[in-house]
Specification:
- By secondary structure, the protein is mainly beta.
- Among the domains are: 97 residues, DNA ligase/mRNA capping enzyme (D-amino Acid Aminotransferase, Chain A, domain 1, 2-Layer Sandwich); 84 residues, OB fold (Dihydrolipoamide Acetyltransferase, E2P) (Beta Barrel).
- It contains four helices and 19 strands.
- The strands form four sheets. Strands 3, 4, 5, 6, 7, 8 and 9 form a seven-stranded mixed beta sheet that branches. Strands 1-12-11-2-10 form a five-stranded mixed beta sheet.
- Strand 14 and strand 15 form a beta hairpin.
- The chain is globular and about 65 Å long.
- The two termini are 32 Å apart.
Length: 270
């Protein structure tokens, strides 16, 4: 089971998205994705790649009745933030499912958290904004606090597991890229050589210092996220910095097209 994924768009899209009442804003969280599936006798969690992952807050999450799928992010401080409820079935009644509009799923999610975890500060729904005023206020406050970014989602959108949907877009305040390590120590320097895939072929895109971030923990083939200033016309990362190891993504998912700007007309706001 794979979670629904967002399409990346430029920060210049914020005014259009904020002014469009069909879209809601939430904070983009910098944690580990967790799609939680509660079935008879067991509750499991899946990462963004669809592979089984550690169940966050196993004891508390294990209280969920069968027939529920929740989507969220586990933070480094142990807090589980939930931002979607793709399916909720209680007492034999399906309240929402994958085809239910996002706006309705949000309401059911809020009520579910209130009922199942009424006094648990470690499990929370992610706050969201729907009016233009509140969306812009949320954007400004996150920008001022050096947050990672925002996620905008169409209120009438369905949940599409494993699909990178244009009904859900992410706007990062700083540019980052997901790449993988193909060798070390080029030209005798303490660096990591970075690559992505394009049409099934490995394409080298730059080098980053191994002296910062998780540089010393990176092994051959490991996926890492790096910050960067820009991406050149000849396909190179300009000033990549701060390598951060990722265990929730495979090298095959690190693609060259992550650097391409999305056509805004495809998401209905251009």
């Amino acid at each position: 089971m794979k979670p629904m994924l967002a399409v990346a768009v430029d920060k210049s899209m914020v005014p259009k998205l904020a002014g469009n009442g069909d879209w809601a804003f939430t904070q983009k969280l910098d944690g580990t994705r967790a799609l939680i599936v509660s079935e008879p006798g067991t509750t499991r969690a899946f990462g963004r790649s669809g592979r089984r992952t550690a169940l966050p807050l196993a004891k508390e999450v294990g209280r969920l009745p069968a027939g529920i799928v929740l989507d969220g992010e586990l933070m480094k401080d142990g807090t589980l933030y939930l931002f979607d409820a793709p399916r909720v079935e209680l007492a034999g009644t399906v309240l929402v499912d994958f085809a239910t509009p996002y706006a309705s799923r949000l309401k059911v999610l809020a009520e579910l958290v209130r009922q199942v975890w009424p006094r648990n500060a470690n499990i929370r729904p992610v706050p969201y904004a729907t009016s233009a005023e509140h969306k812009l206020k949320l954007f400004k406050s996150l920008l001022d606090s050096n947050a990672e970014g925002i996620v905008a989602r169409k209120m009438d959108s369905v949940y599409r597991p494993g699909v990178r949907s244009s009904d859900m877009v992410k706007i990062k305040f700083t540019k980052t890229a997901d790449v993988f390590a193909i060798r070390f120590g080029d030209e005798g320097k303490d660096n990591i050589v970075l690559a992505v895939y394009d049409a099934g072929k490995v394409v080298e895109v730059g080098k980053v210092s191994a002296l910062t971030g998780d540089g010393r923990r990176i092994g051959l083939g490991d996926v890492l996220e790096v910050g960067y200033l820009n991406f050149s016309a000849d396909g190179r990362l300009i000033q990549p910095v701060n390598p951060r190891k990722r265990t929730d993504k495979s090298a095959k998912e690190c693609l060259l097209n992550q650097f391409d700007r999305v056509d805004t007309h495809l998401i209905g706001v251009g």
